[in-house]
């Protein structure tokens, strides 16, 4: 490491004795380890995945493997969509639901902590962050047990006849969406809080002078100023929610399969790599288009600012 | 307060009380549509990278397997053994039967319960097999099914030296000798076997008004929303055929389609709570399901760990029977050590140690009197699900044996959409 | 869903805390509204803590039936308090191995990711260079891509290269998804610091390395530490990406996920509670450290 620091050291590069070439090379020296890592293990794999998605199996008899051949099999994408459009739509719906609920539930909390938290702000934020110290598989598992038919909640309610015999939550779309929402909430609240917290007091005071009531102060000043937080929150909740499959596995039922489950199944069990790659690629594209569109709608200047 | 007092209990008794095997793997979750292997060659060609031929998979290793020379093998006193979780006798983190093996032979066993799923595990070793590289394992345990057929067809297993399987020849049950999926035990010997039947809780009896007795009870509208089916499409399809009175092993694609219709109907009617893998047993314990497809050993274990009310039955239509098999992948580093172990477990004494813990069907019937004498072994020895009697064996059905990617794809395309939708 | 996208938020929270001295905004005649909201926030926090409470509580649940078993399953029927599972926290050999795997991968991959990410952040803040824009886009895509796509694409790459999957590939994946997070975190810290001090240091110390080690590094250290902790947290809890590239190697989240199918042993809750407590303690120490430093600098 020390060797490396000497070679392309920021201070050497920034110092007065450096050469022109050194100045030109310095940033490349700095980014090369991380940049190459991302290039080899992130960018290149994206292309291999795209290539894989355009392959077809070679016909054989019996169980002898003859492999795949690269055939520009663009129809793969059509097949993927026609076979699994239900799961795509379902995932997008779940993702939208989760994002909206997180926003509606999280905004008031972020607002209150930012403006009324006083010197306990840090404590509230810390408490909101606590779930992240627990493995999320364990968290989903805890919900599974809490909400199971004979579990603490439903079992008790059923026993005192507040619920009919055989009532259930686990296995329904509600359970899956509730599970994802639980995981998403802090991701929504934190960026919202950050953007609300940044609002200058004097701006709010000026607004209070200008507008007669609190609602106008909120809709015309506070809310617009929190839009970057909403965007960040959207990014942090929508994307993972749509790609999630753990909640659907642990909390879902036969009609809650999400696209993540399919990709996972195709890659790791069926080993239909072309189909799995095509599905991943479609998912990635849909989400990117969604993010860019959303950024445009919100008038975000630079997406990078918020990531 | 402290319920755990190991010093108050005789270790032998403890061992006897504690046989349990929590995990049962998904039964040959079949490889999906077009599970042909990826050809490195073709890809590299496409990439413009120099590489090997484009014929893919088997060729590289075929010669390695066919020309395997047992006579030149020596013991290396090492053995890398991949198995399913909770599928070997365990006592305080130790495996007594393995310790004994090491003591007797000097072979140290690196025992790793890394297999949770046939297809997923196969996916982890397949790239190495295709590349003609060692998988890192000397013994793997895989169920009879598509993965096993694929391993055999591609010459990815080392043919066993039959002369080294003396205990197997002497003690193995006729049920595991010369099986249809591996004639003459050329590549495999069975680790344990089991049955797929039906398990239920008292809620099912309450809702039905009688004890379930038939696979048709899985279709009973009174159990709506509380029926557990298996996400393994071979299990799912097979139980459907049992309901229709079709013999799974000789079924045809037309039978499959008929069967898929009633399974789809079952789902559409809202009867199915979910399609489960091993987690079906938790769903039954939690009350999410009242009746479910089940593997024979699991209910035993559930009874012992606080759910005595659950029951396993052999439905009148019959049960499916399966075998988990030991095999040696090509390029294995220690084949002689591996085959030594494979024969070792066929000694009745060792088989008894395993049977008294695992509670699935042992391949060594002569272990029965030995198990009966072990602490806590009486109920195990007398269980027809561990030492199957004629009443169970006569009701056991075999799965359909896939002949290749074609019928496998067809099966998958018929049954998988029921689960994945 | 995983921890991942917390980076920004966490780091920004830190920034805000550092300058938080202004009085709260007072809007008149809204006390009831505020009071209601206050209660709401507390209820929300309670809701967020429910699964944690379950985990901690049931790590102490005795289970007479399972107590004598060698591989017991956690019982969700409450059967009285016990510390048995804590006493034999390492009673499930593979779970312990999995935990060690997770810890080793988390430590090593976070260190590598922190070094790579910090260097990228330095380059982006200090220099204008051709390719900086592309690098930013790549980092954005890396952060915005669903985890399942990250894992799937890396797997397809490994499949094409015929690389055996295991500890090394998990390590590669974890560094891959952490670099961008670290870079973003450190960059945000760096942006605020003045170059003047560093230049003065270069006049002071003849050796540029000395200047870096004695002045620059201490200045950006909190950012680096923050990046490291974030990377560590993301790594140790990662399931989705790891699941794709793990091969036969098992990490703690993978083990737990696998065990969900068969019923988890109580030791999972013990280790979960231990990791939770450790995380909370480290975070608290970190926060207290920041407070003390602030007080010192204020004095």
Description:
The complex is a heterotrimer of chains A (307), B (421) and C (299). Chain A is mostly helical. Chain A has helices spanning 2-7, 10-14, 20-52, 75-116, 121-129, 136-147, 152-159, 173-197, 201-210, 214-225, 227-243, 246-251, 259-270, 273-298, and strands spanning 55-57, 68-70. A two-stranded antiparallel ribbon of chain A has the order 1-2. Chain B has 421 residues and is of the alpha/beta class. Chain B has 18 helices and ten strands. In chain B, β1, α4 and β2 form a beta-alpha-beta unit. Chain B starts with 10 loop residues before the first helix and ends with a helix. Chain C has 13 helices and no strands. Chain C has helices at 6-18, 31-58, 64-67, 84-87, 93-126, 132-144, 147-161, 167-191, 195-204, 208-236, 240-245, 252-260, 267-298. Chain C is globular. At the A-B interface, α3, β2, α13 and α14 of A face α2, α5, α6, β6 and α18 of B.
**Count of discrete alpha- or pi-helical segments spanning 4 or more residues of chain C:** 13
The major beta sheet of chain B can be summarized as: 10 strands, mixed
Strand content of chain B: 5-15%
Structural class of chain C: mainly alpha
Q: What percent of the residues of chain B sit in helical stretches (DSSP H or I)? A: 25-40%
Task: Give the topology string of chain C: H per helix, E per strand.
Answer: HHHHHHHHHHHHH
Structural class of chain B: alpha/beta
Mean pLDDT of chain B: 82
Order of helices and strands of chain B: HHHEHEHEHHEHEHHEHEHEEHHHHHEH
Most extensive chain interface and residues per partner = A-C, 119 and 111 residues
Describe the sheet with the most strands of chain C. Answer: none
Radius of gyration of chain B using CA atoms only: 22 Å
Shape of chain C: globular
Straight-line N-to-C gap of chain C = 44 Å
How do you describe this structure in short?
Chain A is mainly alpha-helical and 307 residues long.
Supply the key terms.
heterotrimer, A: mainly alpha, two-stranded antiparallel sheet, disordered C terminus, C: 299 residues, mainly alpha, globular
Secondary structure layout:
The complex is a heterotrimer of chains A (307), B (421) and C (299).
Chain A: H1 2-7, H2 10-14, H3 20-52, E1 55-57, E2 68-70, H4 75-116, H5 121-129, H6 136-147, H7 152-159, H8 173-197, H9 201-210, H10 214-225, H11 227-243, H12 246-251, H13 259-270, H14 273-298
Antiparallel strand pairs in A: 1-2
Chain B: H1 11-17, H2 40-47, H3 59-66, E1 78-82, H4 96-105, E2 108-112, H5 118-131, E3 139-143, H6 146-153, H7 166-171, E4 188-200, H8 202-208, E5 227-230, H9 233-244, H10 253-268, E6 272-276, H11 280-286, E7 291-295, H12 296-304, E8 311-313, E9 319-327, H13 335-344, H14 348-358, H15 368-373, H16 378-381, H17 390-393, E10 396-397, H18 405-419
Parallel strand pairs in B: 1-2, 1-3, 5-6, 5-7, 9-10
Antiparallel strand pairs in B: 3-9, 4-7, 4-8, 4-9
Helix pairs in contact in B: 9-10, 9-18, 10-18
Chain C: H1 6-18, H2 31-58, H3 64-67, H4 84-87, H5 93-126, H6 132-144, H7 147-161, H8 167-191, H9 195-204, H10 208-236, H11 240-245, H12 252-260, H13 267-298
